[in-house]
Amino acid sequence: MDSPHHFSVVKGAKVLMVGAGGIGCELLKTLALSGFQDIHIIDMDTIEVSNLNRQFLFRQSHVGLSKARVAREAVLKFRPQISITPYHANVKDSNFDLDFFKQFNVVLNGLDNLDARRHVNRLCLAAEVPLVESGTTGFLGQVTVHVKGKTECYECQPKPAPKTYPVCTITSTPSKFVHCIVWAKELLFMKLFGDKNQENDLNVRSGDAASSSNHVEDVFERRNDEDIDQYGKRIYDHVFGYNIEMALSNEETWKNRNRPKPVYIRDSLPDAPTQQNGNVEKNGTTNDPSLVSAMASLGMKNPQDIWSLKENSRIFLEALKLFFLKREKDIGNLTFDKDDQLAVEFVTAAANIRASSFGIPLHSLFEAKGIAGNIVHAVATTNAIIAGLIVIEAIKVLQNDTKRYRMTYCLEHPSRKMLLMPVEPFEPNKSCYVCSETPLLLEINMHRSKLIDIIEKIVKPKLGMTSPTIMHGSDILYETGDDLDEDLLASYAAKADTVLSELSCLMNGGSMLTITDLFQELRCDINIKHREAFDEEKEPDGMVLSGWNQAPSEENNGGDKSPDNNEKETVSSKKRKLSEDGLQSEETTRANKKLEVIDEDDDLVMLDDGDFGTFKKRQS
Ligand SMILES: Nc1ncnc2c1ncn2[C@@H]1O[C@H](COP(=O)(O)OP(=O)(O)OP(=O)(O)O)[C@@H](O)[C@H]1O
Ligand SMILES: [Zn+2]
């Protein structure tokens, strides 16, 4: 690729980079060193201290400044003659419109969320500008090429839902530490400190209550006559002792599994009353509830230590007590937050006590926090490798070297001796509603559902549109916008609140709606078909969208740090699943499948057996 043609396409190219974070810093440096001369960067963020370990264009003195602007200045120091145009802005802003995108020869994404990625994908398709997309998660990474009509677009394959666990694994038969973490943060923490009205799968019947058939007392409610120490110990004995005894009584469950051991406070903390006295004062001086810490109370400092069962039990009781003494206002409104120290301490201790009961190895607070918060620590080298691959693909795109486009996956462990796995790009998905014009089909009960239901359950969450206009033929049924007058907005609101069968244009049953989002330059048609009944368990939305391949649900895409995939776990009462973000790469699985058909003559990057320090290019 070091031909004069290569240099001229690089020199003449106008490139847009979106994101100046971990990948973006590496990318800007590599672009500049590769000879690119006209680079535009959009990033909406300012620099934070936590960025400095890997976003090497930034220094301590830059904290609080625009990433895009500082990245520009840093690179101009060693390449002063090139043009770098920074935008400290959200790529979704309306000034980055179709005309803005059309001026570029290629767009390079170094983003961290699905929403922005989908937006850029849509604008690139509309502007017919090739997109090189990327993502990293720890050691995993990927670079993909998206050229309209030639390769699949970023959205041709729906992104898989976060990994889920069956409720019974979490409530009764955990076999991994992550199951204990999900139990501690989704069930126990929520039961004690979250919204009391939410459905929860914890067993709330105590031994006493079970015997009285009429009235079931929720054991998690603090009794009037109970002090906080007594309450903590009662909860402890209930969840780690009594509930395990209950589970053990079902012999069938344990035929092929190790039986758990009930843990009672009298065994794990025989000296509990003296241990828990008066330590709370160590937190007494702080007025900031976010600094309250059970570890501080108990004089435990190192988050990397693996606590014994006894230490976990002390932390459990102390954290519960501190919530009631120092954070009472929050109780009833909390959800687990990885940046809430006391919550992390409580969840770590609870997960460890449960793990000990089930014979699962215990973990440190540091490790537990990583698992509970879905934190995968960024690896600077992965970002650097991915940035290099983005530039390689960008150059092929600029040379229009279609046959040599590759999607490349950076793996954590070598597979068939390869650490970098290049794969020929997939063809566009003919049923993709984003890059093809194939209409979607929506089955819906037209006598019960309203237009607003379609907007809230389908158009915004599933189609990812933020400012939709809904049309039937040339009639506008729904639209939003600051410039619309009040009467018009009121008439749209009234239509949105009408059941579909009463909208005059849809009265005759089957019909087609056209949905557009001007900000995304996206248009898609949806055929509406009446269906009387839906399965509450499997079709909780009361409507079903089809015509676009559905995603596999068991694995996530490791190279995508999008919040959409890192969303906090929720317990869906309808689906009866507890979810957790898996770390295995769905893309890797796709790559492995596709590997079967890779041409032997590909430029594979090999890792020598027994030599884990060097990459070797295969000799051809
Ligand atoms: N809609 C958007 N418009 C512009 N820039 C965006 C948008 N969404 C994300 N970004 C930028 O993409 C970059 C992604 O970089 P990276 O994944 O390293 O995240 P980070 O926020 O810098 O680090 P971390 O999340 O690991 O602390 C960030 O700098 C972020 O500001
Ligand atoms: Zn597509």
From TrEMBL:
Chain ranges passing through the membrane: none
GO cellular component: cytoplasm; SUMO activating enzyme complex
Amino-acid positions noted as binding ATP in the UniProt annotation, renumbered to this chain: 19-24, 43, 51-54, 67, 112-117
Keyword hit for Metal-binding: yes
GO molecular function ontology, one term from the record: transferase activity
Functional pathway: Protein modification; protein sumoylation
Catalytic residues in the record: 168
Localization: Nucleus
Domain Ubiquitin-activating enzyme SCCH span(s) in chain numbering: 318-369
Membership in a protein family: Belongs to the ubiquitin-activating E1 family.
Protein name per its UniProtKB record: SUMO-activating enzyme subunit
